[in-house]
Amino acid sequence: MATSLKIDDKLKSRVQHLASQRRRSPHWIMLEAIQQYVEREEARESFKQEALASWAAYQETGRHLSGQEVRTWLNTWGTDDERPAPECHK
Fold it and tell me: Which of 1, 13, 14, 62 is in the most buried spot, having the most CB atoms within 10 Å?
């Protein structure tokens, strides 16, 4: 799909300079920038939706883990005493 973008001269110059340094085309630089932005924002939105679902589940059930319980569990990772994830509680 062909799409046109209008960018100011200063940004265009910066893209061209970076493309030259990277030995890539300005087109490649812009596509890469858009792809990375979209992936980052999709991940951010996914994280937000997961957090909202977790909050809704907590409000519904009251089941949770404290930060200290999670830290204690994580501190066992990679040790001889590695433990399974703790059970949620009210």
Answer: 14
